[in-house]
TrEMBL record, chain A:
Residues 21-209 form the MacB-like periplasmic core domain. It is found in: Cell membrane. It is a multi-pass membrane protein. Its main location: membrane. It comes from the Bacteria. The keyword Cell cycle does not apply. This is ABC transporter permease. Keywords: Cell membrane, Membrane, Transmembrane, Transmembrane helix. Residues 259-377, 715-827 form the ABC3 transporter permease C-terminal domain.
From TrEMBL, chain B:
Keywords: ATP-binding, Nucleotide-binding, Transport. Residues 3-225 form the ABC transporter domain. Transmembrane segments: none annotated. It comes from Pseudidiomarina taiwanensis. Belongs to the ABC transporter superfamily. Macrolide exporter (TC 3.A.1.122) family. SUPFAM superfamilies: P-loop containing nucleoside triphosphate hydrolases. This is ABC transporter ATP-binding protein. One of its GO terms (cellular component) is transmembrane transporter complex.
Length: 837, 226
């Protein structure tokens, strides 16, 4: 029976649009959650796949010794693909010349992610390589062609084995950004490695195993493997690790999306809460009539629970459909725009979205519904009766609990959820208090004003209690909007700064001191913008404060090495590129100590992450060995370096007098448009020993990733915006109902429509402006914490929002209020009076 | 007696002390009688009606309806009693805006679990002259039509008692007269006991008994029986 009655009520109420706000709020929360989570998941899968290309795998195990075969068997059992990659330095002989090279021996399947590109001539048009070099063949980096004056088909000797050079190695996905220490690569087959005879006891070799597979399988394997690894011998890497600009951008983007989505969900839930309250208030009379006509409480409960459930399910279905369409549209647009397709998402987002809709509808209507069934039947004779208010605590408990549950459900992070929740609760209390003070103050200011203002002020004051709650939701909505907007601007600006359109796309290394001037002159003649030239002196750091560091070259048996790790620092295990310079390079900031002063004597400035890893402080004395010359230098400053800046960056910078006398080569980076690529060969022909590193491919990938993320962020912003507007709308509508009676009385007493509409508009304008102002304050505070704590960015103040916040609040809330009021005034007075009777 | 009160009182606490809305009232209404309660605004006549109908609770004294003491019943049982034995007509009609005329009339019968709710509702709406407007919603009906729907709703399930609160108060006099005629006609046909609150003296005169409320005190107006 109640099902029939509920259905009848619902049908007509839907038709007449009485449930629009409630339905819209649920639809929106479901749409937002679904499209956001599907989109984020797909984007993330896409990004992870893309970033995996930088590793050439999903996970990489790096080892100083050969990896036990059972580890590989286990990988096979977990359905993982794997490939060997062995990397070491060696010499290559060709054309009676000798060159330092990096040998890279890889097994079938390499690269597991991303692609290898090869060309027929150095810096020529390249294509995707299918497979690996054949037996007895080697693919060689362009730089080595210059250095050894090679031609395709020439023989090159590596160790005991002779290889035929069959292709120019133009792009390796896993080449990374470490351009300073790498020699040109020679790619050979893993099976032929032994024949070179280069791997012997004590050789400095990196044995890498690349893995790829499903994330669950990878996780299981990782759980099995990690306990068996030793810190001294092994390292395990995934895409998220590391300090590549890409990994940082991704982490920030992920955090932003998560945060923005959370805020969107909270906003949508708030809209549901406001609408639910209103939904129940509208049904007070209906319940009273039902009771008068003899309906029992269980009957009424059944009717309204069914009613609400039907509405919720209907809205969830609509929301799901909309959400799916929306993300499909965005994905289509992304695909069009970027020329990539994104992987499909799983079923979790659908559960999450449906769950969010259901949970927020049920929890936020719990109290209003309880109150609804308590409505006394006597209300049919006395319209003032609204039942008991004693369960209000339950409302706060249910609403608070729900918001927290949603935060947790969505982020799956206790700490973040708790922080946001507690922060939000504190902010709410502060906002309520400040809001009330503001209203009181504005009342006094308004007493001197004209009559529409006076009415508005009187209204504000009379409804101070209701208004401060209203203001809370206006403020929250405006604040979250501003927050997402400002954060997005900052993130985008930050990325843009990292990868400006004129970012250098080539590194040139190994420039002889005698060539520095002429190369610079060549750059100028060809109108090529380059960075400063930095000298490079290869050297080892051998001791800290007199205690030698553990280094790979120091051959020790593992047990003693492990035992000593506690006291002794682990060295770099390789030569470092040391530089000298008297001025602080761009994109570097001194965070401890001071940059070199004029004082004589050796000084070194070290990069902050190295300092942290090696537990170095200002004042520590480092010992270096450069070509047999051993000397010590005190650390005088610690620098933070923008690694993403694509400029030559250094762990160690010395003052000039310390290093200037050592033999050095120079490094620089410059920008050359793709269409001028053919000039490279000409440009560098006079400098055969110079090596050139092409960053275009990597930068293109970075740009692609960043534009995908920016697009996603724009999308999130729009959704949050809609959610915010919905909250404002629901709140204005709800408060209009409270005003209805008063308006009718004033109207009946003959107040002109213009006066009423102006006074209501003013009231909303004041509310909106105050909310906007408080929102801006709160936004700045929240943003400061987020930027510093969550996003690793430098904090900034957003002056334009100080105007934008209050102005936007006043305009949007004012316009909404005026529209709602106009609707009310348009209905004739008799109709209104009857409605209130 | 169908309706009986003994020493029925209602008082409320206000900031200025206890306000006696109803002085002790003893009243008997027999089955089939038509009774008007008249009096000025604020005299307590609506309060009396709400107590008689079990919508509100008395401060002291008893209301006995069909041999059942209302004070012995909880809210649920009083609702059940209303569903079984009582019909209502209100000044502001109190139709449910999202239900059609037919659905509004069916509602009490459905709540009481009657199988023939729709059948009964159709017949009653035909009786009040709205056979053509079954699927109209309240906002598509005039005031008079809405009150006719309310009358049909009051009679569905053939209640023993009908409570009417200013049934013509929101209508113009011509429409009001028609609605009155209809009300009395249907009441007579079904033999229902009618208790009506009104300040319309003419309307009151159409009832067999007229009770006057004044300052919370009830007096019966004696008059010539024609």
């Amino acid at each position: 029976m109640w099902r029939r009655i509920s259905w009848r009520l619902l049908k007509q109420e839907l038709k007449r649009g009485e449930l629009t706000i409630m339905a819209a709020a649920i639809v929106l929360s479901v749409t937002a959650v679904l499209s956001l989570s599907v989109f984020t998941e797909r984007l993330q899968a896409g990004l992870t796949a893309r970033s995996a290309e930088f590793l050439a795998a999903d996970r990489v195990l790096s080892s100083r010794r050969e990896v036990p075969t059972e580890w590989l068997q286990q990988a096979q059992q977990e359905n993982l693909q794997y490939a060997h990659r062995v990397v070491f330095n060696s010499m290559a002989f060709a054309q009676d010349q000798l060159a330092l090279i990096d040998v890279k021996a890889v097994s079938e399947g390499y690269p597991l992610r991303g692609e290898l590109r090869i060309a027929e001539q150095p810096f020529g048009q390249d294509r995707i390589a299918e497979g690996l070099p054949g037996a007895g063949e080697a693919w060689v980096a362009a730089a080595l062609f210059q250095e050894l004056d090679l031609q395709l088909g020439d023989a090159i000797e590596v160790g005991n084995k002779q290889f035929t050079v069959t292709q120019v190695l133009s792009y390796e996905p896993d080449v990374g950004f470490s351009v300073f220490t790498d020699s040109p690569n020679v790619l050979i087959r893993y099976q032929e490695l032994a024949e070179t005879g280069l791997i012997q006891q004590g050789s400095r070799v990196r044995y890498n195993i690349l893995y790829a597979g499903e994330s669950d399988d990878l996780q299981r394997y990782q759980d099995w493997l990690l306990p068996q690894l030793s810190d001294a011998t092994h390292s395990w890497r995934s895409v998220e690790d590391g300090d590549s600009p890409l990994a940082r951008s991704l982490r920030r983007a992920e955090r932003f999306m998560l945060l923005a989505s959370l805020l969107g969900v909270v906003l949508a839930a708030t809209a549901v809460a406001v609408a639910a309250q209103r939904y129940c208030q509208r049904n007070y009379d209906v319940v009273a009539i039902f009771k008068t006509l003899g309906a029992s409480k269980p009957q009424i409960q059944a009717v309204f629970v069914t009613h609400l459930l039907l509405l919720t399910l209907f809205s969830i279905a609509v929301g799901m459909a909309l959400g799916w369409l929306l993300q499909a549209a965005v994905i289509y647009f992304v695909a069009e725009y970027l020329g990539t397709t994104l992987p499909q998402a799983g079923w979790q987002p659908y559960v999450l979205a449906g769950g969010t809709g259901l949970v927020s509808a049920v929890m936020f209507t719990l109290y209003p519904l309880l109150r609804l069934v308590q409505i006394p039947p006597l209300r049919v004779l006395n319209r003032q009766l609204t039942g008991t208010d004693s369960l209000r605590w339950l409302h706060w408990l249910a609403s608070g609990g729900t918001i927290f549950a949603l935060l947790l459900l969505y982020s799956q992070q206790w700490l973040l959820s708790l922080a946001l929740f507690v922060g939000g609760a504190i902010a709410a209390v502060v906002l309520l208090t400040v809001g009330r003070l503001f209203i009181r103050a504005s009342r006094q200011a308004g007493m001197q004003a004209g009559s529409a203002w006076r009415l508005a002020m009187a209204g504000l004051q009379r409804r101070a209690q209701a208004n401060s709650v209203q203001m809370l939701s206006f403020t929250t909505a405006i604040m979250l909007l501003l927050l997402v907007l400002a954060l997005r601007d900052d993130l985008l600006a930050d990325w843009q700064a990292q990868l400006p359109d004129d970012a250098p796309n080539y590194f040139v290394i190994n420039i002889a001191p005698g060539d520095v001037d002429s190369l610079q002159q060549d750059f100028t003649e060809r109108d090529i913008v380059s960075t400063d030239l930095y000298p490079i002196v290869p050297g080892r750091m051998t001791a800290v404060n007199g205690v030698p560091v553990i280094d790979e070259v120091t051959k020790e048996d593992d047990q003693s090495a492990q035992a000593q790790t506690q006291e002794r620092r682990e060295g770099f295990g390789r030569e470092l590129s040391l530089t000298w310079r008297d001025s602080l390079p761009p994109n570097n900031t001194v965070i401890e100590g001071a940059w070199f002063d004029a004082q004589t004597g050796p000084q070194v400035s070290i990069e902050s992450e190295v300092a942290e890893r090696m537990r170095l402080n200002v004042g520590d004395v480092l010992e270096f060995n450069i070509g047999g010359n051993v000397f010590t230098t005190p650390v005088t400053s610690i620098r933070e370096v923008e690694w993403g800046s694509l400029q030559p960056n250094f762990y160690m910078i010395f003052n000039s007098q310390t290093l200037a006398d050592f033999p050095a080569t120079y490094i620089s980076s410059f920008r050359l448009e793709a269409e001028r690529k053919n000039e490279l060969f000409e440009l560098f022909r006079p400098y055969p020993q110079v090596s050139l590193i092409d960053l275009d491919a990597i930068m293109m990938q970075l740009r692609e990733v960043i534009s995908q993320v920016s697009l996603a962020i724009g999308f999130v912003l729009v959704l949050v915006l809609i959610a915010g507007i919905l909250v404002l709308l629901a709140q204005v509508q709800a408060s209009m109902e409270e005003r209805e009676k008063e308006l009718v009385i004033l109207r009946t007493l003959g107040a002109p429509a213009a006066l009423l509409s102006r006074s209501v508009t003013y009231e909303f304008v004041i509310l909106g402006a105050i909310s906007g102002l408080i929102a801006t304050l709160a936004m700045e505070a929240a943003l400061y914490i987020l930027q510093v704590q969550v996003f690793d960015m430098s904090a900034s103040i957003h002056w334009r929002f100080w105007l934008l916040g209050p102005a936007a609040g006043a305009i949007v809330v004012g316009v909404m209020g005026r529209l709602a009021c106009a609707q009310l005034i348009r209905r004739n007075t008799a109709q209104l009076i009857r409605g209130l009777a | 007696m169908l309706i009986q009160t003994t020493q029925l009182q209602k008082q409320v606490n206000t900031s200025e002390g206890i306000l006696h809305i109803l002085q002790p009232i003893d009243l008997q209404i027999a089955a089939g009688e038509t009774v008007a309660i008249v009096g000025a605004s604020g005299s307590g006549k609506s309060t009396l009606l709400s107590l008689l109908a079990g919508l509100d609770l008395a401060s002291s004294g008893d209301v006995i309806i069909d041999n059942v003491k209302l004070s012995d019943l909880d809210e649920e049982q009083r609702a059940k009693l209303r569903a079984d034995k009582v019909g209502f007509i209100f000044q502001s009609f109190l139709l449910i805006p999202s239900l059609t005329a037919l659905e509004n009339v069916m509602l009490p019968a459905e709540l009481a679990g009657r199988k023939d709710a729709e059948q009964q509702a159709r017949e009653l709406l035909a009786k009040v002259g709205l056979a053509e407007r079954l699927q109209h919603y309240p906002n598509q009906l005039s005031g008079g039509e809405q009150q006719r729907v309310a009358i049909a709703r009051a009679f569905v399930g053939t209640p023993k008692i009908l409570f009417a609160d200013e049934p013509t108060g929101n209508l113009d006099s011509v429409t009001g007269n028609k609605v009155e005629d209809l009300l009395f006609e249907m009441n007579q046909a079904s033999g229902t006991t009618l208790v009506m609150v009104t300040h319309d003296a003419e309307l009151a005169q159409r009832c067999q008994r007229v009770l006057r409320m004044d300052g919370g005190q009830l007096t019966e107006e004696t008059r010539d029986v024609a």
